[in-house]
Amino acid sequence: MSRPLVLGGVIALIGLIVDQAVKTWLLFGFDLGERGRVVVTPFFDLVLVWNRGISYGLFAADSQAQVWFLVAVKTVITLALIVWLVRNTDRLTAIALGMLIGGAIGNTVDRAIYGAVVDFVSLHAAGYYWYVFNLADVWVVAGVALLLYDAFLLGRNSKVSGEPQ
């Protein structure tokens, strides 16, 4: 087994475990649903939002069939990312894919168990509120950012650069 594969797998597993542990604690230990909005700092609140859609709540699943369709789509995408990770030999790409996989599985588990994704982080400043998100979302965004950094700034994954790879 290659080192990048192990690295990506460990990162995915850590991301999944941390995401699910925090969500479970907030739902059943801290009882965020009963507490409502909890002010943590002047710019950060905890608030429970059930996201029935995908990014920014788009394509909300209102029926059980739609929920399972979204679970199936996310599962196929995650499997494609896993295949990419297995074939990958680069360490940075493995880290990025591990983050994407861990975050994707975390949100897919939510949707399969609850019918919606558990979001709880609310950032705001000067009267402007960003959308509510969770740790799995952070992992996904960080993974995409690393892939973009690798592709565009390092240029290692670019066939257009004209340089040998």
Topology, pairings included?
Layout: H1 3-29, H2 32-35, E1 38-41, E2 44-51, H3 64-87, H4 91-114, E3 117-125, E4 128-129, H5 135-154
Helix pairs in contact: 1-4, 3-4, 4-5
Tell me about this structure.
This protein is 60% helix and 14% strand. Strands 1-2-3-4 form a 4-stranded antiparallel β-sheet. It has 165 residues and is α+β, with helices and mostly antiparallel strands. The chain has one domain. Strand 1 and strand 2 (44-51) form a beta hairpin.
Quick take:
The chain has 165 residues and is α+β, with helices and mostly antiparallel strands.
Strand content: 5-15%
Please give the count of helices. 5
The separation of the N and C termini measures: 23 Å
Largest sheet: 4 strands, antiparallel
Question: Overall pLDDT, averaged?
Answer: 90
How does the overall form come out from the CA principal axes? globular
Q: What pattern of helices and strands is seen along the backbone?
A: HHEEHHEEH
Taken together, the total number of domains comes to: 1
List keywords for this structure.
165 residues, disordered C terminus, globular, alpha+beta, 4 strands, 5 helices, 60% helix, single chain
